[in-house]
Amino acid sequence: MPDTMLAVVIASYGGSLAATSRPIPRPGPGEVLVRVRASGLCSTDLHLLSGRQPLGDLPRIVGHELAGDVIELGSGVTQWRTGDRVTAAIDVTCGCCRHCLAGDTQLCRAMKRIGFERDGGHADYVAVPAANLVAVPAGISYEAAAILPDAVACMYHSLIHQGGVGIGQRVLILGVGGLGIHGVQIVKSAGAEALATSRQPQRLELAERYGAIGVNTATESLKDAVERFTDGEGVDVVADNIGTRASILQGLSMLRPGGKLLVIAYIDETFEVPSIPLFKTELQIIGCRGSTKQDLIDVVRLVRAGQLTPVLGASYALNDIQAAAARLESGDLVGRIWLTRD
Ligand SMILES: [Zn+2]
Ligand SMILES: [Zn+2]
User: Fold this and answer.
1) Which fold has domain 152-287?
2) Is 47 a catalytic residue?
């Protein structure tokens, strides 16, 4: 094995993402070394570069969506073997705080996330705690597995755990980009109906292929569409993947009494909501943060069962990270971008 590898490193905030040479990490006690075969590029990676989300000590290798092969075991690791195909839950959690004990590991106060507070997977190799690994069955490609921890598991966590989406419910998905398109499939797999919005016809087409009713908000009235969809009742759940003041207010106005608005995106830093409808109809505004390892295990099972298809848009080589980032920012892609390895 060589001593160095290619990795996408944030050395200082601002500028652009670049792949550089870095030493190959060693797995510590309880960790494994994964040879990364594919990693998903997320708009959060671009937010990290801007410094909007501080990373702590720099330089840091980013990348929180990865899949690959276990190639070395650290001391004390007994449940994995070299050659195992794996992906990894993002949050490295303490396992003993009240949130971890309750299964709400996404709220752990001592969390250090892969690709945030510790080095991530936009690299040829990454050392991760064995406790974070989830096995990838042979029928799931590395690139499909790579996008599961964030783009898919976070939507699953939001809709199923935070939203309580279940049989017969009617769900409005605001924005069918990289997360929303998986949201549509998760809603359908839970036995619920989905109404999905976008201004881009190709995104709506794909959402409809996965069983949603599409609404082009550039040309159609969302209010009318929701009325038709729910016989005038309003939807049970709104998943807001847009995260603006306007989308939050619009989402709230589409709910039935007692309905839930899931806050998944965060473009505007604050929003104001009218208090009377909240009071009179017991609307709920619910924050959704990340996903748990169990969520990741669940979505791997859904993919294996054929109930969920990871939507891949375009691939770039790891050292072509700047072109990949430009493509992501252009917003013209339907599926997720992944970075390949030699
Ligand atoms: Zn992400
Ligand atoms: Zn904890």
Assistant:
1) Rossmann fold (3.40.50)
2) yes
Structure tokens at 197: 């919005």
Report d(CA 35, CA 302) in Å as an integer.
25
**CATH assignment of 4-147+310-340?**
3.90.180.10
Domain range annotation of the chain: 4-147+310-340, 152-287
pTM for this model (two decimals): 0.95
Write out pLDDT tens, residues 38-91. Answer: 999 998 999 899 888 888 889 999 999 999 999 999 999 999 999 999 999 999
Q: Is the dihedral of CA 226, 180, 109, 56 positive or negative?
A: negative
Neighbours of 215 (CB within 10 A): 26
User: In this structure, what token pair is assigned to residue 134?
Assistant: 């989830």
Ligand 2 centroid – CA 112 distance (Å) = 10
Beta carbons of 254 and 235 less than 8 angstroms apart? yes
Q: How far is Cα 98 from Cα 93, in angstroms, rounded to an integer?
A: 12
Q: How far is the CA of 99 from the centre of ligand 2 (A)?
A: 6
pLDDT digits (tens, 9 = 90+) for 188-215: 999 999 999 999 999 999 999 999 999 9
